[in-house]
Amino acid sequence: MARVAISTALGLLLLGSFLSAAPWAQTQEKPAATDKTVPVVQAKTPPATSATGRAEYVGAIVCKTCHEDIYNNWEKSPHWKTTLDTKGGPSHQGCEGCHGPGSAHVAGGGDKTKIFVFSEHSSKEINAQCLTCHAGGTQHMNAINSVHSKNDVSCTSCHSSHHAETKEFLLVKAQPALCYSCHLDKKAQFAMPFHHRVDEGLIQCSDCHNVHGTVGPKQVRASSTQDAICFTCHIDKQGPFVYEHSTVKVDGCQSCHVPHGGPNPHMLKLSNVNLLCLQCHTTSFSSAPGAPSFHNQSTFFQACTLCHVEIHGSNFDATFFK
Amino acid sequence: MTVRINADLKANRWQENSRSAALCSNVQRRGFARVFPGLSILKIPALAALLMSPAVLWAQSGSGDSPGINSGDYNIHQTIEAGYRANFVNGNKDTYDTFENLGSGLRLFNYSFEMRSLDHKGFLFDSLTFSNFGYGGDPNDVTRLRIQKNKIYDFRMLFRRDKNFWDYNLLANPLNPASLNPPGSPSSGCYATTVGTPPVVAPVVCSSPAVAINNSPHSMDLVRRMQDYNLTLMPQSRIQVRLGYSRNRDEGPGFFTTDGGTISDFNQNYSYTTNAYRAGIDFKVLPRTTISYDQFLSYFKQDNVVTDNPAVNPQNFGYQLANPTGNGTPNGAPVDLGIVYSTQTPAEVLPCAAPIVTGTTNTANPTCNGYLSYSQVGRPRNFMPTERVRFQSDYFKDFEMSGSLGYSTSDNVIPDFQENVNGFTARTGERGSTTSGPANAKRVSVNANWSGVYAVTAKLSILDQFRYDNWRIPGAWALDETNVFGTGYAGLAGLQQSEAIFNAANCPLGSNAVTCPQHTTTSAADVTTGLASTFLGQNLKSNTLELQYDFSKRLSAHVGYLYTNRTISQFSDTNDSGLVYFPGGATASAANDFLAARGSCTEVGGALPAGCTLNTDGSVSFVAPVAAGPTRSLTTINENALLFGFVYRPIDALRITSDFEFGYNDNSYTRIDPRQVQSYKIHASYKVKTWATLDGAVEIHENRDNVTDINNLEHDRTFSFATILMPNQRISVDFGYNYWNVYTQSLICFAYSTSVTNPAPPPATLPVSSFPIGVPMLPTGPACPIAGASSPLGALSTYSSNDHFAHAGIIWKTTKRVTTMVGYGGSFVRGNTIFLNPLTPSGTLDFNYQKPYASVVIELYRGLSYKMSWDYFGFNETGATNPFGLAAIPLQDFNGSNATFSFRYSF
After folding, report:
1. Are A171 and A159 a contacting pair, CB within 8 Å?
2. B89, B88, B98: which is closest to B844 by C-alpha?
3. Rounded to whole angstroms, how far apart are CA atoms A67 and B396?
4. Using H for helix, E for strand and C for coil, what is the string for B120-177?
5. Cα–Cα 20 to 30 A to B424, which of A213, B45, B620, B729?
6. How confident is the model at residue A44 (pLDDT cuts 50, 70, 90)?
7. Is residue B491 left, alpha or beta, with left meaning phi > 0 and alpha meaning psi from -120 to 50?
8. How large a percentage of chain B has pLDDT more than 70?
C-alpha cells in the first residue's frame, strides 16, 4: 500500500514535471514582452507596479496625454489600425501593442524602465517585438533567414513608427539612400554609367531583394514563376527556349553581368565581349563548344554578339543567330 | 475579457486622464524648468497660445509642408513641383542619351496628393495617397497610388515608364581599317609592309571603302511600361485575400544583326507583353501560424518583326545592282552590302574583296555578299501557371519554422516562325533561304524549402535551412528550311541571277534550263525538314546548418556549414529527317540526275544510295534512317562551404559586423564556375558623436577554378568609407570614397593569323607596334596547350578594372528661408586587359564619369518655394580610343549641364 502511494506520488511528480516542460503551444494572450523563439530572446518585461503585480493596459488615449505630438503623428500612420484589432486583445492594440502595458509607466511618472523603449533594447529584442505581429506577413515569412537580423540590424534600423521619412513602409530614409548607409559599395556601383535605374527612382532595392530575408543567397527574390527576379522586367530573356544558353539558366544572369552597375556596356563583367565568350568557349572542362578555328581573332574582329545575336536563348538556331 | 477591460478603462478613463495629465504636467514642468530656468511657468500658457497659432507657425516655418485643409471628413494635402529644365550637351549626344536622356522642356517634377479621414470612418476610403514624378518628358516616370479602408481593403497601384534609349558604340567593327590613301599616307596605295624573301611590298590593313561603325548596331529606343495592381481584402482579419495584376509592355524600334555572308543591320520592331494575374489567401486562424496559398498566371507574348528592305530602311541600301540584260534581278535593284567593311585583310573579307564595281560610285559587285531584302517574324506565346504554398509558425515554444512548396510550368509555343532571306551568300552560292516551322519549349519547375530555428538556451540557437529546386526545359523545333539558288542566265552572276523557283515549267524533267536553280556538287539540299530536340535541367539540393551564440550583450557569433548538390543534365540533337535535292547546275548531267544526286544522295557505283529516291519531277529525296537517341551529358557538382560571422559592439557607439565564407566545389559547369570560393565582409559603424557617424566596409570575394587547363582566378574587392556630419539643424555634410577592384583571368584558346602586322605609321621612323603581352606569334609562340582544341593559339586572358568613386554633399540652411545644396559624385575607372589585336580600341577600360550638382531653394510664402538647380554630367574616355591605322571612330565623350527652375507649392 505504501509502495503504491509512493509510486503514485512519484508518478504524479514526474508527470507534472513533464507537463510543465512540454513544448505546448504558447498562450493566446501575448505578454508585455514576446517570448518568440526567433530571434530567440526574452524581451524585457516592465516590472509590475499594480496590485496584481503586473502592469496593465491603459489604452492609447492615455499615452496621448503626455506624448501628444507622437500620438498625433502615429494616428496618421498604418499602426493606428491596430486599435481596431480587438481579437488580439490590448496586447496587439495601439501604443501598447509595441511598447507593452503602460500602467506602470504611467504610475511611475513616465518611468522609462517600466515600458518597452526600443532604443534601449538589442536588435534581437526589437525584432522579436515587431515580428509578434508582422511575422506572418507576405514579406516576412522568411525572417528567420534574414541576413540583416544575423548582422545586428533591427527593424528600427530602417523603419520608424514615429519618425518615418516615407509614408510607405515607414522608412527612416527613402530608398536607396537608406540602403547606401550600410551598403557603401553599392552607391559606387549605381553611379557607374551602365546601371539599373535605382538612383533615378525607377526601381528600388526592395524590388529585387527581400530585405527581411529569403531562402536564396543575397536575399534576392524569385519571380512569380520561381525563376530569376531579373525576368520580372527582362521578360524577353526568360524563355524557355528550344536552344538555351545553358549558363543563363544554370548559373544565372550574373555569370556574364554585374547586377547593380558597372563600367562596361550592358553591365557585362568584361570590357571586351570576345574575351568574355572565350572564357567558356575554349575547349576544356566545359560543356560549351570551343570557338571554331575560322573565328580568327586577328581579323574576325567583330564582337561575337554581332552574329550570335540571340545570346540569351533561341528557338530556331543552335548558334543563336536568330 | 477584452470587452470588460475596455469597459473598465472607459469608466476610469476620465480619472486616469486627469492623473496622467497631472503626472505628465509634473514631468514637463520639471523638465522645462531645467531647460528654461528663467521663464516663469505662468507665462507659458500665453506663450503657448501664441506659438500654437497656425498663422504664426506657418510664417515661422516659412513654406515647409502645409498641414493641408480639412474638407468634410477629410484632411487634404497636396504638393506640386513644376518648372522647366534647360539642357545643354556637348559631344556625343547618343552617349548622353544612353546614360542620362534628360532633355529640355516643361516638367512636372513631383506631385503628391493625400486624403486622410479625420475620424477614420471615411465613406469609401480612410486614406488615399497619390504621388508621381518625371512627367513631361523625362525618361523615367513613376506613379504610386494607395487607397485603403481600415479592415476592408488595401489597394496599391504602381505605374512605371522607362524610356530606354541605347546607342553606345559597342565597337562592333573596332578594327575597321583605314581607307586607301588616308591622310599622312604615302602618295599611293595604303599602308604597306614588307614580307618574305625577297621582300614583297604587300598592302595590308586597308579597306575600300572604309566605313567605321559609329553607332551601336543594336541600338534601340524602347519604352517599357510596367503596371502593378495589388488588392488585399480584409487586411486585418485572420483570413486575408490578395488579388493582383501586372502588365509589362516593352516596345519600340531597334536593330538586329545577322550573318548571311555579310553582316547587316536590320530594323527590328520590338514588342513584348506580359500579363500576370495573382490570387492569394492567407490563413491566420491557427495560433501564431500563417499559411498562404498563391496562384499565379502569366501570359507572355512577343511580336517582334525584323525587316530589311528599301522601303523600310533605305539607309541600308546605298548601292544598286547593275543588270542591263533584262533577265534575272532587275537593273538598279537596291543592294544592302552590310555594315562591316574590311576588304583587304587576308583572312576575313567583308562583304567581299571588291564590293564596289570599279569605275562606279554606288554600283554593287553582284558576286559580293549582300541582301536585297530580309524579313523575320516569330510570335512566341508563353503561358506560365504557378502554384505556391507557404507557411510560417512559431506555434511551438522556442521553435520557429517556415517553408514553401511551389510548382510552375511554362509552355512557350511559336507556331508560325518565318524567315525569308533574299540575297547572295558567296561561300555557299545560295541566292536566299526561307526557314520556318513550329517550335515549342516547356519549363517545369518544382521548388521547396524549409527553415527552422530552435532556441536551445537564451544564448544558443540552431538554424537549419533546406532547399530543393528542380527544373527542366525540354524543347523541340520542327524545322523546314528551303535553300534558294539562283537562275543560270548567261553572263549573270550572284545577285544578278534571280531566285530560281523549281517547278515543271521552270525546270522540265531531264533538262538544265536557265531557269533551273543552279547548284554545284557541294551545294546543300534545297529542302531540309527535321526535328531538333533539346533538353536542359538542373536538380539542386542544399542544406545549411548554423549555430548562433550570444557570448554577451556585446558579442555574438554564428558558424555554419553549407552543402549543395547540383546535377545538370542536357542534350541537343537535330535529326534531318528529310532532304530534297533539286536538279540544275553547270555540271548537271544524266549521270548525276542533273545534280539532284549530290550530298547524301551522291551516286555510288552509278546508283543512288540507300534512303534516296528519284522523284518524278527530277528531284531526289532522302529519308534519313532513324538515329539512336542523343547522349545526355550529366554534370554533378558537390559544394561545401564553411560559414562564419560575428557581431561585436565594444562600446555602444561602435558596431562591427562580419561574414566569412570558405567553399570548395568538386566540379564546375563552366570554366569560370569557381571550385574554390572565399568571401570576406566586414563593416564597422562608429557614432563618434550624436551628430557624426563614420562607416567603413571591406568586401572581398575570391573565386578560383585553378585546374591546369583553365587557370581561372577572379577577385572582386571593395574598400569604402563614408561619413555623415549633422552638427546642427542648419547644416549637414556627407562624403565618402569607394575603391572597387576587379580582376579575372583564365586560359583561352583562339585562332589568330600572324600575316597581319601593324602598319608603320608615317613617318616610317616610328616603331611598328608589337603584339600585346600574352599573345605570342605563331609558329614560335606556344600553341594552345589544350589537347584537341579547335583553335591553335593559347593565352592567359586577363582583365582588371580599378574604380575610384568619390562623393560629397553639403546641405546648408544659410538663412531661415534659403537652403543651399552642393555635391559631387565622380567615378574614375582605369583598367587593363589582353588585346587579341593591338589595334583594338580600349573602349570602356578607362574613363572618367563626373556629376557635380548644386541647388538653391528659397521659401517664398506659405507653402511656396522656388528652386534653382544645376546638374552636370561629364563622361570622357581616357584610353586608346582611336588606334592609328583605323578609320576614325567618334569619341563617346560628352559633357552636359541641366539647369532646372521650379516652383513647389504645398497646400
Report:
1. yes
2. B98
3. 37
4. CCCCCCCEEEEEEEEECCCCEEEEEEEEEECCCEEEEEEEEEEEEEECCCCCCCCCCE
5. B620
6. very low
7. left
8. 83
A264-289 tens-digit pLDDT: 999 999 998 989 999 999 876 666 78
Q: Which three cell numbers stand for residue A183?
A: 551598403
A226 part of contact set with chain B, CB < 8 Å = yes
Residue whose grid cell is 555634410: B733
| Inter-residue contact B364 to B337 (CB < 8 Å) | yes
A177 touches chain B (CB under 8 A): no
Kindly list the residues from chain A whose CB atom is less than 8 angstroms away from the CB atom of residue B851: 191
Q: Do B160 and A244 touch (CB under 8 A)?
A: no
Q: What is the per-residue DSSP string for B11-38? A: HHHHHHHHHHHHHHHHHHHHHHHHH-TT
Q: Does B568 touch chain A (CB under 8 A)?
A: yes
For A274, A282, A306, B707, B711, the CA distances from B674, given in Å and listed in that order, are 21, 16, 28, 10, 11
Mean pLDDT confidence for B748-761 = 55
Closest residue of chain B to A143, computed from CA coordinates = B402
DSSP characters for A152-164? T--HHHHB-SSS-
Q: Which residues pair with B434 in a beta bridge?
A: B420, B482
The phi-psi region of residue A311 (left if phi > 0; otherwise alpha if psi is between -120 and 50; otherwise beta) is alpha
Residue with C-alpha cell 521547396? Answer: B448
Residue of A19, A20, A40 to mutate when probing chain B, most B C-beta within 10 A: A40
Contact B5 A87 (CB under 8 A): no
Give the max Cα distance, chain A: 105
CB B628 within 8 A of CB B563: no
- DSSP 8-class letter at B16: H
C-alpha cell at B787: 589537347
Given a contact cutoff of 8 angstroms between Cβ atoms, the answer to whether B583 and B526 are in contact is: no
Burial of A23 (0-12, 13-18, 19+ CB in 10 A): exposed
**Distance from chain centroid for Cα B212:** 26
Closest listed residue to residue B300, CA positions, set B385, B421, B197, B237:
B385
CB-based burial label for A72 (10 Å; 0-12, 13-18, 19+): exposed
| Angstroms from B842 CA to nearest CA on chain A | 8
Please work out, in degrees rounded to the nearest 5, the angle formed at the alpha carbon of residue B436 by the alpha carbons of B432 and B441.
140
For residue B39, pLDDT beyond 70: no
Measuring CA to CA, which residue among B514, B471, B142 is closest to residue B326? B514
User: Within 10 Å of residue B207's Cβ, how many Cβ atoms?
Assistant: 26
Please indicate, yes or no, whether the overall pTM of this predicted structure exceeds 0.80.
yes
H or E element: which one contains B104? none
Residues with Cβ within 8 Å of B447's Cβ and at least 6 positions away in sequence, in order, are A226, B404, B405, B406, B408, B467, B468, B469, B470, B471
Per-residue pLDDT of A167-193, as tens digits, reads 889 999 999 999 999 999 999 999 999
CA B304 from centre of chain: 18
Residue type, A102: G
SS3 A67: coil
The C-alpha cell 534519313 sits at B624
What lies within 8 Å, CB to CB, of B332 at 6+ separation is B320, B321, B322
Q: Is A151 on the interface with B (CB under 8 A)?
A: yes
A164 touches chain B (CB under 8 A): no
Which strand (E) or helix (H) includes residue B768? none
Smallest CA-to-CA distance from B651 within B618, B688, B681 is with B688
Nearest to B778 by CA among B810, B749, B799, B798: B749
Cis peptide before B762 (omega within 30 of 0): no
Quote the DSSP letter at residue B191.
Answer: -
Identity at B473, one-letter amino acid code: I
DSSP-assigned letter for residue B58: H
Reduced to 3 states (helix: H, G, I; strand: E, B; else coil), residue B46 is helix
